[in-house]
Amino acid sequence: AAQIIAATVPDDHGAQLQAAIMLANFGRNDEAVDRLKGLLRQHPDCRDAHIALGDIHFYRGNFDQASDRFKSALSESRTAKERSAMHVRLGEIDLSREDYAAAKIKFRDALQDDPELEATVKTLQKRTGYR
After folding, report:
1. How far apart are CA 71 and CA 83, in angstroms?
2. What Å distances lie between residue 60 and 15, 16, 56, 89, 105, CA to CA?
3. CA atoms within 13 A on the CB side of 40
4. What is the pLDDT of residues 81-115, one digit of tens each?
5. What is the dihedral of CA 79, 71, 34, 8, to 10 degrees?
6. Which among 84, 19, 75 is positioned nearest to 47, based on CA atoms?
7. First CA to last CA across the chain, in angstroms?
8. Which of 29, 35, 104, 130 is deepest in the core (most CB within 10 A)?
9. pLDDT (tens digit, 9 = 90+) per residue, 62-84?
10. Secondary structure (H, E, C), the chain
11. What is the mean pLDDT of residues 40-61?
12. Contact 23, 32 (CB under 8 A)
């Protein structure tokens, strides 16, 4: 249904985003990437599209591309909670790269904006063996 709506209303960026997320959820990542890139060509400030594209790149192990997308989402963030979520995602990339010093800075920034993320940060750190 999401694909039909997206095809019917190509200018509705919400429908395009939903369709891309559904594609990714069903493992059709190449199609999701294409749809997200098209959406970002039309709406370069669509924070959620940057995040979804970053998630796919992260899942695929393309950390540089994921980082670029999350940085773009960070620049489009309007609230402290949105900023903190992107700092956590960027910190997660740093942990995957075993750049613990950079991860520590990202997590510190995330917790400054949203102290409620402390449990999430600790879980990520434990999962990678870094504290």
Report:
1. 10
2. 24, 22, 6, 15, 24
3. 19
4. 999 999 999 999 999 999 999 999 999 999 999 99
5. 10
6. 75
7. 44
8. 35
9. 999 999 999 999 999 999 999 99
10. CHHHHHHHCCCCHHHHHHHHHHHHHCCCHHHHHHHHHHHHHHCCCCHHHHHHHHHHHHHHCCHHHHHHHHHHHHHHCCCHHHHHHHHHHHHHHHHHCCCHHHHHHHHHHHHHHCHHHHHHHHHHHHHHCCC
11. 95
12. yes
CB 51 within 8 A of CB 41: no
Compute the mean pLDDT over every residue in the chain, rounded to the nearest whole number: 89
d(CA 92, CA 95): 5
The token pair at 90 is 């960027």
Residue type present at position 89:
R
Instruction: Report the candidate in 10, 28, 8 with the shortest Cα–Cα distance to residue 20.
Output: 28
Residue 127, both tokens = 């999962």
Structure-token match 């959620």, residue found = 48
Q: Quickly tell me which residue has 């670029």 as its tokens.
A: 68
